[in-house]
Every structure is written in C-alpha cells, then in structure tokens.
Amino acid sequence: MARAIWSGSVSFGLVSIPVELYSATEDHTVHFNQFQRGTSDRIRYKRVNERTGREVPYDKIVKGHEVENGEYVVVEPEELDEIAPGRSRTLDIEAFVDIDEIDPVHFQKTYWLGPAKPEFSRPYLLLAQAMKKTNRAGIAMFVMRGKQYLTALTEDKGILAVHTLFFADEIRKPKDVLDVTPEGRAPRGKELDMAVSLVESMADDWRPKDYRDTYTERVNKLIKAKQKGRKVKVEDEPAAATGVVDLMEALQRSVEASKKKRGKKVS
C-alpha cells in the first residue's frame, strides 16, 4: 500500500473531516546516473560549505534569503512551520465554484484524498456526493512541505481528488511568451470547411488506456540493445511543414486517409 504524503483535515463550514493525501500519479521516466565520458566514474553532488570545502549534513543546514547584496536572513524550519496557515494541517474550503469555470491551464498535479479512519467515511461521502450533484469544486489553500498551494477538490467516482493549481500570477499570457503570434484574416470558406471535416473524421471517445509512453519504451529498448551490443532502429524524421499553397490538398488527403482508417476499424 502507498503511504500518505500529508495528513490533516478538510473543513467546510463547521464540518471538519480528518483526511490523508496520496499521490494519484507515478513517474515511469527512465532515470540515468551521470558518468565522466570514457570512464566508469560516477558524478556525484555534495552539500559543501563554500568557505571550508567540507560536506555539511542535512541536520546542519538552514535556509537563508538574500535581502541585499551578500546579506541574508536565516530562517529555521520550525519558524516556517509556525507561520504556515493552519499549521500545515488544514484544507480549508473557501468557496465552491463550477468545475467548468476552471481553465485547464491552472491544473498542476492531482492527488487522491481519503478519510483518515473508517469512522470519518460518512461526512467524507457526504461532501463528495454534494459536489457531484452540484458539479462544483471546493477551492482551498493548504501548506505542504514548506509551500502553500491553491487547490481544487473534486469528486471522482465517490473519491475526493485534490488538484493543485497555479496561482493567477503564475500563468503566462501567450502574447508575452510567443515569438510568433497568429496573424491575418480568420480562416473561412472551403479551407475551414475541410478542416472541420478533418476534425470530425478524427473524432473519437476519450480512452486513456489507448495511449502509452512510447518514448520510455524505446529508451528501455535502447538500454537493452546496448547491453547486448546491438543497434536500435532510428525513428523517421518528422514531416516537413505544410506550405500555404499545399494546405487544401493536404487537408483533402488527410480526410480521405482518416475515413479509410475509420473504415478498417469498423470492419
């Protein structure tokens, strides 16, 4: 069984429910160690005192924030815990909002939230069903591991999910980050009709199990092949950009190919 990464309580109104937080996802990325090329020597990172050159143990390390050039304010871990809202142990729901009003760009990471003990199941299920019936998410703030999070609590098949959200000032506006922004007259006429036909011909139900991390699979194959002294097939180069002149033809051929692919699936 997985271990809870945070424990506390969810409160709404005068109701408080002891809960435990669990990660809802896991990372399957292949992780590498670092070596000096041409040797079997590992590269390691150490916590070193820049003045003495000696390694410093974790329990001797504190945090410092630079306030002026070379001047730091040192803060102890206990001091951070003491100023945390609710002493880091409360998910206090401040409002319930329509789930559909939350822009997906705000979502960061998802966790499962469970009752701390069986006897807390009734108020837990009551909150979950109320949110399901109203299609609303509970907006709450809490502190975990020295960081404050804005979160949205939602219901998922009778289980509460906690989604950490980016704050509004953490969301970049497209115009501030794009080197090239779309310009010119909005598409219309035959090109738009053909593009709509292509989208409709590729319409399908959302089935997450149909998709998998093929890159990680190829990395694992590469590692096994190198271990046995074999070579791995190189992937084809990506398709060249579609020119404006060829756009209509590319759309037409795409619609035809999509319809053929659909026909094979049906048969």
Automatic annotation (TrEMBL):
Q: Which keywords label this protein?
A: DNA damage, DNA recombination, DNA repair, DNA-binding
This protein's superkingdom?
A: Bacteria
In what residue span(s) does the Ku domain sit? 53-182
Note one Pfam family from the annotation: Ku
What InterPro entries is this protein classified in?
DNA_bd_Ku70/Ku80, Prok_Ku, SPOC-like_C_dom_sf
Instruction: Check the record and name the Gene3D superfamilies matching this protein.
Output: 2.40.290.10
Is DNA damage one of the keywords?
A: yes
What GO molecular functions are on record for this protein? double-stranded DNA binding
GO BP terms, alphabetized: DNA recombination; double-strand break repair via nonhomologous end joining
- Please describe what this protein does: With LigD forms a non-homologous end joining (NHEJ) DNA repair enzyme, which repairs dsDNA breaks with reduced fidelity. Binds linear dsDNA with 5'- and 3'- overhangs but not closed circular dsDNA nor ssDNA. Recruits and stimulates the ligase activity of LigD.
Recorded family membership:
Belongs to the prokaryotic Ku family.
Q: Oligomeric state and partners?
A: Homodimer. Interacts with LigD.
PANTHER family according to UniProt: NON-HOMOLOGOUS END JOINING PROTEIN KU
The protein's name in its UniProt record? Non-homologous end joining protein Ku
Query: Taxonomy-wise, where does this protein's organism fall, top ranks first?
Result: Bacteria, Bacillati, Actinomycetota, Actinomycetes, Pseudonocardiales
* Gene that this sequence comes from: ku
